[in-house]
Amino acid sequence: MKQQIVFIHGGETHDTYEQYVEYLKRSEFDPKKESQKRWKHSLAENLGDGYEILMPQMPSKHNAKYNEWKIWFEKVTPFIKENAIFIGHSLGGIFLTKYLSENKFSKTIKATFLVAAPFDAEGTNYSPADFILPKSLEKFQKQGGTIYLYYSKDDVVVPLKNLEKYKNALSTARSVIFEDRGHFNQEEFGEIVDGIKKI
Q1: Taking residues 79-85, what's their average pLDDT?
Q2: 2: which residues sit within 8 A by CB, 6+ positions away?
Q3: Which domains does the chain have, with CATH numbers?
Q4: Model's pTM, two decimal places?
Q5: Phi, psi at residue 109, to the nearest 5°?
Q6: DSSP string covering 29-81, please?
Q7: 158 and 151 in contact (C-beta within 8 Å)?
């Protein structure tokens, strides 16, 4: 049976609708960026035939709301197999952390990879809006399997201080720090492929 990988992508959050409209006004359309290949797109190819990738498109990624993501994720959960490996990139990481800290997941999770996941808004120019984490991440630590934290020192979106906060909240988590990956928007990510294969 194939090892299932469940990938939750990132997104943008805004505290108000007005902030979202201002974000749209400031944003530029870039055709190259719209079609840019990212490492998530090559996961299946790089992992090989023994893996199956489940990559749901979460609602309103430019104005993400936790409750909407929770509703959609719970429609995805019947398709998640026992001993799946979760990957959450950026907002997808804080979403998985919050969801698995506040809800009982019905299946065993083998491992969870948080890649550049925000912990809170301290010292940043963004707001997690309603993706705010609960005080305790104990339930996530118990049911998230082996937890891996991937961060880069030059990430200007989610600074490295977020890693320290996760490490303090998740005593058994394993961390990997990179020097020059920014917010992990590269086309290839061989280290996470190797990390998954070693599990």
Answers
A1: 98
A2: 49, 50, 51, 52
A3: 3-198 (3.40.50.1820)
A4: 0.94
A5: -105, 130
A6: --HHHHT---GGGGHHHHH-TTEEEE----S-TTS--HHHHHHHHHHHGGGPP
A7: yes
